[in-house]
Amino acid sequence: MLAPATRRARRDTRTARPSFPARTIHLIDIENLAGTGIPAEEQVADLRRAYAARVGIGPMDQVVIGCNHNALPAAGHGWPGARYLIRSGPDGADVELLTVIERENIAARFTHVAIASGDHIFTWAAAGLAAAGCQVTVVTRPARIAASLRVAAQHLIYLDPAAVPFPARPDAA
């Protein structure tokens, strides 16, 4: 009796996952970068220019900005073309950006994730993305990054404080 012929396994193209191009998602906590809960439109525009110059935003990249409802007009006019997520309250913008990481399969869709915030709340998400194979860059202002996030990030980029000054504190004289 002859052995049955072996067939070459064929790839089922109906269920194969498409290959995504190398691209970056920029998750931006605009309030954290601005240093205020209600940034001015000009300040957001300055942040956009400084961010683009230091980090770079490619034509296939996605920009997602988290902010509270009071910051939305400045974010929308100062950084046009982004996706805006709005939630007010303590850590509202952070929670919205973390929801994107958790629910939108970021590790499978993007090769690089830029987290524009220094808040410690992003530490576990950054570590998880790095473990899943994403390059993780944290973009923040000098002296505004949590130690745990600094350790979790593979790359760290500081925005130049001279290019985008913090607003004057009311208690500073």
Write the topology of this structure:
Layout: E1 24-29, H1 30-34, H2 41-54, E2 62-67, H3 72-78, E3 83-86, H4 92-103, H5 106-109, E4 112-116, H6 123-131, E5 135-140, H7 147-152, E6 155-158
Parallel strand pairs: 1-2, 1-4, 2-3, 4-5, 5-6
Helix pairs in contact: 2-3
Feature tags:
173 residues, alpha/beta, Rossmann fold, six-stranded parallel beta sheet, 7 helices, 18% strand, globular, disordered C terminus
What's the short version?
This protein has seven helices and six strands, in the order βααβαβααβαβαβ.
With helices defined by DSSP (H or I, 4 residues minimum), what is the helix count?
A: 7
SSE order: EHHEHEHHEHEHE
Characterize the largest beta sheet: strand count, sense, and whether it forms a barrel: 6 strands, parallel
Strand order across the largest sheet: 3-2-1-4-5-6
**Spatial separation of the terminal alpha carbons:** 97 Å
At CATH level 2, the architecture is: 3-Layer(aba) Sandwich
